[in-house]
Structure to design on (276 residues):
């Protein structure tokens, strides 16, 4: 395994199973850094390109695969920062991203309080003006956007997210 | 860094324009602005989210708060301009029909 560090972000690569590793403090302040790394990893699998090459910090997640991965990841990161670390940090979030030929797997590990995923209420079946929810949507978004979402309470707590390219989508990932 | 939202009052309507990422970090200051808008009891509110390129559930919650608050006051509200990832999220949550997106 090769490991190098750049501005506090560690990357490691293995020949057979390349894996991007990122560790950030468990607060929302570092959320956007993680989101941008995940967005770029999604592009490696989907083959989508940043539409505005002159603005690499633009939140460009228009490709359906990228969109699903980033949307789900944002919700899980929020969940960890809010529920595991109670918005006060005090711990780290370890993120391992494995971009495969046709799928992306993300593992998110924290050492905070465990989350009871069974407590997540389903969205109202009949949605109208009176039943519009103002919370409890995050896990629903993650589960619906991805092919697999698993959670193993710890310590450490571990979220595992998987998104696969649809069978009819040709992977044109940049190498 | 430009503010992620802007409010324009024309006398007959209040227009709220949001841009960038509407998420757990940017939704709280927007929610404060939404409280002010609702307290002003405008007859009509237009919320333009064409500049929003990324939204999470906290951002959605802020817009739901706006929608409910304006409607509860007997006023009308139009949410317009949803595209790309934000539109996909509203469709996933089945809010696109409630908001007429």
């Amino acid at each position: 395994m090769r490991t190098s560090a750049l501005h506090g972000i560690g990357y490691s690569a293995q020949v057979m199973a390349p894996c991007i590793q990122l560790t950030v403090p468990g607060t929302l302040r570092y959320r956007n850094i993680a989101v941008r790394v995940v967005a770029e990893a999604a592009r490696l699998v989907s083959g989508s390109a940043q539409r505005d090459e002159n603005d690499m910090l633009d939140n460009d997640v228009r490709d359906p695969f990228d969109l699903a991965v980033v949307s789900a990841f944002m919700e899980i990161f929020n969940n960890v920062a809010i529920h595991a670390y109670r918005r006060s940090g005090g711990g780290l979030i370890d993120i391992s991203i494995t971009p495969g030929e046709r799928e992306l797997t993300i593992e998110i590990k924290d050492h905070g309080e465990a989350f009871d995923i069974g407590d997540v209420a389903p969205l109202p079946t009949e949605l109208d003006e009176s039943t519009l929810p103002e919370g409890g949507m995050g896990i629903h978004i993650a589960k619906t956007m991805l092919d697999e979402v698993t959670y193993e309470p710890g310590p450490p707590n571990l979220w595992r997210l998987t998104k696969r390219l649809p069978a009819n989508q040709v992977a044109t990932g940049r190498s | 860094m430009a503010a992620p939202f802007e409010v324009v009052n024309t006398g007959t309507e209040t227009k709220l324009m949001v841009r960038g990422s509407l998420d757990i970090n940017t939704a709280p200051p927007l929610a404060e602005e939404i409280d002010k808008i609702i307290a002003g009891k405008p007859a009509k509110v237009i919320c333009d989210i064409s500049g929003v390129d990324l939204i999470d559930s906290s951002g959605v919650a802020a817009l739901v708060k706006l929608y409910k608050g304006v409607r509860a006051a007997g006023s009308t509200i139009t949410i317009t301009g949803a595209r790309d990832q934000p539109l996909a999220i509203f469709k996933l949550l089945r809010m696109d029909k409630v908001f007429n997106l």
